[in-house]
Amino acid sequence: MVYVTSWDEFVERSVQLFRADPESCLKFKTDQAQDAKKMEKLNNIFFTLMARGPEVDPSEVTGKDQVEAQPTKKGRGRKQ
């Protein structure tokens, strides 16, 4: 196993490794909470690569999908 110290390098190398050999493992060790928060975006990149194929450009993945907000209903209870 290889440890990578930079988050950006880890993302780039893990995507390359997934395309070359999806059964291999690359580790990233951190004690920073902000690095842990970046895992959601990385998971979305891998979900996209698995769903659309390894040739997809991961820069197209934005993180959370933009969902149109539906208007909320005002008030509570029954209509009278």
TrEMBL record:
Residue span of region Disordered: 55-80
GO cellular component, one term: signal recognition particle, endoplasmic reticulum targeting
Subcellular location: Cytoplasm
Keywords for the protein's UniProt record, in alphabetical order: Cytoplasm, Ribonucleoprotein, RNA-binding, Signal recognition particle
GO BP of this protein: negative regulation of translational elongation; SRP-dependent cotranslational protein targeting to membrane
Main localisation: cytoplasm
An MF annotation (GO) of this entry: 7S RNA binding
Coiled-coil stretches noted in the UniProt entry, renumbered to this chain: none
Biological role: Component of the signal recognition particle (SRP) complex, a ribonucleoprotein complex that mediates the cotranslational targeting of secretory and membrane proteins to the endoplasmic reticulum (ER). SRP9 together with SRP14 and the Alu portion of the SRP RNA, constitutes the elongation arrest domain of SRP. The complex of SRP9 and SRP14 is required for SRP RNA binding.
Similarity annotation: Belongs to the SRP9 family.
Record protein name field: Signal recognition particle 9 kDa protein
Species per Swiss-Prot/TrEMBL record: Rubus argutus (Southern blackberry)
